[in-house]
Design goal:
Elements: E1 9-16, E2 22-27, E3 33-34, E4 37-39, H1 46-58, E5 69-75, E6 85-94, H2 97-101, E7 110-116, H3 118-124, H4 127-134, E8 144-148, E9 169-170
Helix pairs in contact: 3-4
Length: about 170
């Protein structure tokens, strides 16, 4: 499938273990840490993307439902020429040690996975991703809407971490 035109839409799954740690994955070749998930393809819903990405990246089948949606975010582009994005965050399952024993990473996409407590996640993840998942999450069946704005400058390649203003509203 090909990527949809317009605003890119991404969809990620937030999985935990019994100790409330978060499952994070490391991109192959790049070394950045993120949540399992990726870009919504043409003809695919954000929910189907979360299911597909979990299958492809982790080798696990998640029975995600529409009411597992935790949040939707509009994320302003961080650099000139990039596009704003829409981000969906889904509540994945609490994984047992038997579940994690079955994880088979897609080596083309991922080099490693690990559990991270909230402080580790804040350190390892991109600041925008960390803000998205380290803030208080809503009760199941309740969705948070957030906007992440980037301070725009004449040059966006100066290496500064973007300023973020988050306005939480319930959808």
């Amino acid at each position: 499938m090909s990527k949809a035109p317009g605003h890119p839409i991404t969809s990620y799954v937030l999985c935990t273990d019994p100790a409330s740690r978060l499952l994070i994955v490391q991109a192959a070749g790049i070394g950045t840490w993120h949540l399992p998930g990726g870009v919504v393809e043409v003809g695919e819903s954000p929910l189907d993307t979360a299911r597909r990405e979990a299958r492809e990246e982790l080798g696990l089948a998640f029975d995600l439902r529409p009411d597992d949606l935790l949040g939707v975010e509009w994320a302003q582009a961080r650099r000139e020429g990039a596009r704003d994005r829409i981000v969906f965050l889904w509540s994945g399952p609490m994984l047992s040690s038997a579940d994690t024993d079955r994880i088979e990473l897609d080596a083309r996409e991922l080099s490693e996975w690990r559990w991270a407590n909230r402080d580790e996640a804040r350190r390892l993840l991109h600041p925008a991703v960390a803000a998205r998942i380290c803030s208080p999450l809503q009760w199941p069946g309740s969705v948070t809407y957030q906007e992440t704005r980037t301070e725009r400058t004449a040059r966006h390649d100066d290496g500064r971490v973007p300023r973020q203003d988050a306005a939480d509203r319930h959808a």
